[in-house]
Amino acid sequence: MSEPPRAPLPPLRIGTRRSNLAVVQAEGIRDSLQRIAPDRAFEIVALHTLGDKDKSTELYNFGAKNLWTAELEDKLTSRDLDVIVHCLKDMPTRLPESCDLAAIPLRDDPRDALIVKAGMPYTTLKTLPEGAIVGTSSVRRSAQLRRLYPHLRFANLRGNVETRLAKVDDPESEYTCMIMSAAGLERVGLKHRINQYLGSKDGGILHAVGQGALGLEIRKGDDAVLELLGRLADEKSTLACLAERALLYTLEGGCTVPIGVETEWVGDGARVLRMRAIVVSLDGTRSVEDSLDAEVRTNDEARAFGKELAERLVKAGADAILKEIVANRPPKN
Ligand SMILES: NCc1[nH]cc(CCC(=O)O)c1CC(=O)O
User: Fold this and answer.
1) What pTM, to 2 d.p., does this model score?
2) Spacing, Cα 110 to ligand 1 middle (Å)
3) CATH number of residue 25's parent domain
4) 251 and 181, same structural domain?
């Protein structure tokens, strides 16, 4: 007697935000999954989240850290979605009880990048003229830049990648340039607009925790999806990002505090993880930085490594800088 035909699996639903960048990222993951599981159907569900809607409220005044993730996580928990594709740097280090970070695929360029207004001749931060206005709403970027480039000024710049670029390029706008993540720019086809890649070796500023990587989030206990997504995981990207997230978790910072990091694999066989980190006061006048090298082989070792560097920063005065920032925030609306 032959087996009765099995009902085909329902499509695996991949949730994401509705920006062009988010959809491009989700399509990349869908294509990779389709290659691994050619018989399975995949469907992208792109949602307009609260974070996309409110363009004016200061980022830290939203209260909840997970402005971009909460609605998607609700749909994951209620089984309307099976996986969420996030920019890892937008993913809080504390996830809801019902959700898990299932996999981190190969990370793209984690660096920040400088983009100068179309038609202007400047190509580096150092050569921008006195008083030039840098568009950024990231206190991590502005605090580090104030520290190193006191001749620059800053103005908020929000919106998706394309909107921000259009605002900078507008000849009537105040912006001389902006800083954005290289990975974000490259994914939407704007690599050719990058004037300078920034990092410890050029420009001097450190990127956000998890920048340039994607985080794939699932319902806790969904072993079938965990197994499938595990096949997209990249080991070195995962270890480096988990170390960065443990540092952030220990310092209790979200995406709205000025903490920069940089990780690289060094030494024989590139088995040693080197992580630099910096915490800067908003005005750039005080900072604490350090770096740590260690062999890191497992997720637990990566988390312990990130925690250790965070503890060293705290001993050197990072908690005083962070506490002052939180205490001086205007009240939540
Ligand atoms: N905070 C916004 C955000 N979240 C993820 C990216 C780009 C993709 C990435 O760096 O992972 C960006 C834009 C930016 O900061 O320039």
Assistant:
1) 0.93
2) 10
3) 3.40.190.10
4) no
Q: Which residues pair with 173 in a beta bridge?
A: none
- ipTM value for the complex: 0.94
Q: Ligand 1 pocket test: which of 157, 181, 209, 256 has the largest number of ligand atoms within 8 Å of its C-beta?
A: 181
Identity of residue 139: V
Q: How far is it, in rounded angstroms, from Cα 11 to Cα 30? A: 11
Which pair of structure tokens corresponds to residue 64?
Answer: 């909840």
The rounded average pLDDT for each run of 10 residues, N- to C-terminus, in the chain (333 residues) is 77 96 98 97 91 56 62 95 96 94 98 98 98 97 98 96 97 98 98 98 97 98 98 98 97 77 96 98 96 98 98 95 84 54
Same domain, 241 and 314: yes
Distance CA 297, CA 61 (A): 39
Q: How much is the pLDDT for 60?
A: 46
From the list 31, 54, 74, 90, the catalytic residue is 90
Domain count along the chain:
3
Residue 154 · residue 133 · CB < 8 Å: yes
Contact of 272 with 292, CB cutoff 8 Å = no
DSSP state of 178: E
**Domain encompassing residue 116:** 112-198
